[in-house]
Write a structure and sequence with these properties.
The protein is α+β, with helices and mostly antiparallel strands and about 140 residues long. Helices cover about 45% and strands about 20% of the residues. The protein has a single domain (about 1-140), classed as Alpha-Beta Complex (Sufe protein. Chain: A). The chain has a three-stranded antiparallel sheet with strand order 1-2-3. Bound molecules: zinc ion.
Length: about 140
């Protein structure tokens, strides 16, 4: 269990230090949503571009704690290339998982599973959620 925790911590730290798909674009083909988390000053902007019913690209930019910034990076990697419906299901399932609600273990959260432990820390749930909430909003805001 300890080594699993360490592995999870390493993945989170890696995404925090070397964020994937970071930086916004000015391409009008992207839908942009920004969310703030007043409780710890996190602020994340997510951009999504759809392509043939799939997530063609997903970008993020912002500042915040390690949980917030790393989960934004993990989210973009998880989402790029996913069919729209799968992307929806994964994001909804992830948000249920981190907030301690029932979720479907059959939906593969891939690397995002490392945030399963967040539900034990109510103060961090919002940190782990905002990038994913912003992502879902980019899908709705067409
Ligand atoms: Zn935070």
């Amino acid at each position: 269990m300890d080594s699993l925790d360490n592995l999870y911590r390493e993945i989170i730290l890696d995404h925090y230090k070397n964020p994937r798909n970071k930086g916004l674009v000015t391409d009008p083909g992207y839908v942009t949503v920004r969310i703030k988390n007043p409780s710890c000053g996190d602020e994340i902007t997510v951009q999504t571009r759809l392509e043939d019913g799939k997530i063609g690209d997903c970008r993020h930019e912002g500042k915040g704690c390690s949980i917030c910034c790393s989960s934004a990076s993990v989210m973009t990697e998880t989402m790029i290339g996913k069919p729209l419906e799968t992307a929806h299901a994964v994001a909804a399932n992830y948000l249920n998982m981190v907030s301690g609600k029932p979720f479907d273990p059959a939906v593969d959260l891939e690397e995002a599973e490392v945030y399963a432990g967040v539900r034990q820390f109510p103060a961090r749930v919002k940190c782990a959620s905002i990038a994913w909430q912003a992502f879902l909003q980019t899908l709705e805001k067409k």
